[in-house]
Amino acid sequence: MVQCTDCKKWRLIPSMQHYNIIKETQLQTPFVCGTTSGWTPNMSCNVPQDGTTCDTWPSIPPIPTGWSRSVHIISESTKFADVYYFPPSGERLRSSAEVQSFLDNHPEYVREGVNRSQFSFQIPKPLDDNYVKKRTRPVKRRKSSKDNNCEKGKK
């Protein structure tokens, strides 16, 4: 997600390629809603913003070459989203500790200049505080001795 510098609305970016281009040129060419017209026809500051806000952009460090970052929105959970990083080998890394462990076990990436500071596990923030629905457990009805007597009487 990226925020328009004119209207301050958040826009969903359809691919990591588009996102990285916008991020790399942000200082020279600030993002505005019209930028998305190439993949979202008729986009402008007059169109309502997308469903979430993201305080992580542009503070997410550039992803190392060959790696990918994925944010998985969770519809019903105690938190809104999970962030994962995937090295070229395809493993899923879910935390800074996992990234450090991976780098400790794969020094070839460290030699290429990859370090833990290049990873951010910050997640987007929902616009609506009630967006994340808490899971409720179904109430299990316990059989009482009365229920057992009824069953016995049916036999």
TrEMBL record:
Function: Probable transcriptional regulator.
GO molecular-function term, one example from the UniProt record: zinc ion binding
Protein's cellular compartments: Nucleus
One GO term describing the cellular component: histone deacetylase complex
Limits of the CW-type domain: 1-53
Biased composition (Basic residues): 133-144
Organism: Arabidopsis suecica (Swedish thale-cress)
Pfam families, alphabetized: MBD, zf-CW
Ranges of residues in domain MBD: 53-126
Top-rank taxon: Eukaryota
Keywords (A to Z) from UniProt: DNA-binding, Metal-binding, Nucleus, Transcription, Transcription regulation, Zinc, Zinc-finger
Region (Disordered): 130-155
Chief location category: nucleus
Residues making up the signal peptide according to the UniProt record: none
TM helices/strands, residue ranges: none
Compositionally biased spans, kind Basic and acidic residues: 145-155
Name under which the protein is recorded: Zinc finger CW-type
